[in-house]
Amino acid sequence: MTVLGATGSIGLSTLDVVSRHPERYEVFALSAHRQVAKLAELCLQFSPRVAVVAGPGEALELRRLLVGGVLPEILYGPEALELVASAPDVTTVMAAIVGAAGLGSCLAAARSGKRVLLANKEALVMAGDVFMKALRQSGAVLLPIDSEHNAVFQSLPAGFAYGLKGSGVRKLVLTASGGPFRQLEPALQRTVTPEQACAHPNWSMGRKISVDSATMMNKGLEVIEASWIFGIDAERIDVLIHPESVIHSMVQYEDGSVIAELGNPDMRTPIAHALAYPERIWSGVESLDLTRIARLNFEAPDFGRFPCLRLAYAALRAGRSAPALLNAANEEAVSAFLERRLRFDQIAHVVEAVLDSAGVVELNDLDTVLAADAQARECARAQIRCLETVTA
Ligand code: NAD
Ligand code: MG
Fold first, then answer.
1. Cα dihedral sign, 146-147-148-151
2. 364 Cα to the center of ligand 2, angstroms
3. CA nearest 146: which of 25, 289, 274, 318?
4. Which of 41, 79, 258, 320 has a 20 to 30 A CA-CA distance from 152?
């Protein structure tokens, strides 16, 4: 298998599960971007045939760190990511790069008929139609890693994962922890720091998705992701706040039944499910102790407090390039927030301004997706500069 984004939170959890089953999985390639020292450690542990990094400098550095041992072939750049995602020796690709940077390699895996373990939700949000068409044409299989989508997948009847027609499904209910600011006075959102936003109560994750969880844009991206994976429209996807993150999502059926997947909040469970599907393997995660948890809580999401969730639903309903614009604007705004150039509450302002000003167009292929992405980023950067001058 190939693990894209091997040094990230999902990549490391994947390799943790893989290391429990050395007889089952052979690591063909590992990728990291700039975290070369971490990648070197993983190369020593997993002996991949290929290692991919950001550029020539990182490649030299990795070679230096590994000298004296068995060297993998060291490649760099986006084409190398596509190469290891589509290599003939690879059957399974874990797509765990964060953001739009993962789109090319995700698509390469989909086009070449791999088992695509999809963590990189931004790729699907940007290019859902192009990606799903590529999967269908090549016969590739998508297995969702995002815990909500993995829970829905597990709660559906076999064979209905990519289209719910005839399944008797009434609605999907995606649960959300509500993040660290569920109860924060809305007026105080303007004072939130990157450190506060990255301290998630239940899950330990990369910085970008942690900020997305805090704004609830993450749930919005997941609503769009669910709409593509399961072929269902916005009206039939609900979001439910469930602070304990024990129920990972649910499916409501026409007859009134509700089927859910429960577990401890640890990404190794959905990862192990997708790695072994349709078998079951040890993931390192213990089963739930419901007597210890004792109480589960639920509440409706507050769209006023979390405007990013409202904007994501609006983008899904608008369709065409609107989700790609939303995603690109959000990526720009989140990185400006992490660099302390934008306030937390201004992330939603930037996204809304981009959705209001950039025209929505059809997305037929990768080029039109990338053009919409670039246009939204330019517009978002202008907005951010404007807010910076006003705030300074
Ligand atoms: P992370 O920041 O911990 O790791 C990101 C990985 O991508 C790293 O290996 C990094 O080297 C690599 N990377 C970063 N920029 C890159 C670039 N420009 N080109 C190539 N590689 C690059 O992120 P994460 O939390 O592991 O999340 C990865 C993806 O999985 C995201 O799309 C996220 O939304 C999704 N996801 C994560 C979780 C979670 O619990 N962490 C849960 C569900 C979904
Ligand atoms: Mg999720």
1. positive
2. 27
3. 274
4. 320
The residue written with tokens 């995606």 in the block is 174
Q: Supply the DSSP string of 173-210, one letter for each residue.
A: EEEE---TTTTS-GGGGGG--HHHHT--SS----HHHH
Binding positions for 1-deoxy-D-xylulose 5-phosphate:
121, 147-148, 177, 200, 213, 218-219, 222
CB 311 within 8 A of CB 347: no
100 token code pair: 């739009």
Backbone angles phi, psi at 223, to 5 degrees: -65, -45
340: CA distance to ligand 1 center in Å? Answer: 21
Q: How far is the CA of 4 from the centre of ligand 2 (A)?
A: 18
Q: Which atom of ligand 1 is nearest to the CA of 34?
A: 11
Residues at CB less than 6 angstroms from ligand 1: 5-11, 32-33, 35, 96-98, 101, 119-122, 146, 203, 205-206, 209, 267
Question: Does the predicted TM-score (pTM) go above 0.95?
Answer: yes
pLDDT, tens only, 316-347: 999 999 999 999 999 999 999 999 999 999 99
Q: Which residues are annotated as a binding site for Mn(2+)?
A: 146, 148, 222
Residues 6+ apart with CB under 8 A from 359: none
Q: For residue 180, give the nearest of 163, 171, 169, 193 by alpha carbon.
A: 193
CA distance 168 to 170: 6
Among protein residues, the one with the nearest Cα to ligand 1's atom 17 is: 101
Distance 237 CA to ligand 2 centre (A): 14
CA R_g for the chain: 20
Tell which atom from ligand 1 comes closest to the C-alpha of 210.
Answer: 25
Annotated binding-site residues for NADPH read: 7-10, 34, 120, 122, 206
Alpha helix (H) residue ranges in 29-146: 36-46, 56-66, 78-86, 103-111, 121-138
Give tens-digit pLDDT for 189-241.
999 999 999 988 787 899 999 999 999 999 999 999 999 999 999 999 999 99
Q: At 186, which amino acid appears?
A: P
CA 269, CA 288: separation in Å to the nearest integer?
Answer: 12
The DSSP bridge pattern shows strands 2-4 and 29-31 to be parallel
* Short-list 45, 75, 48, CA closest to 59: 75
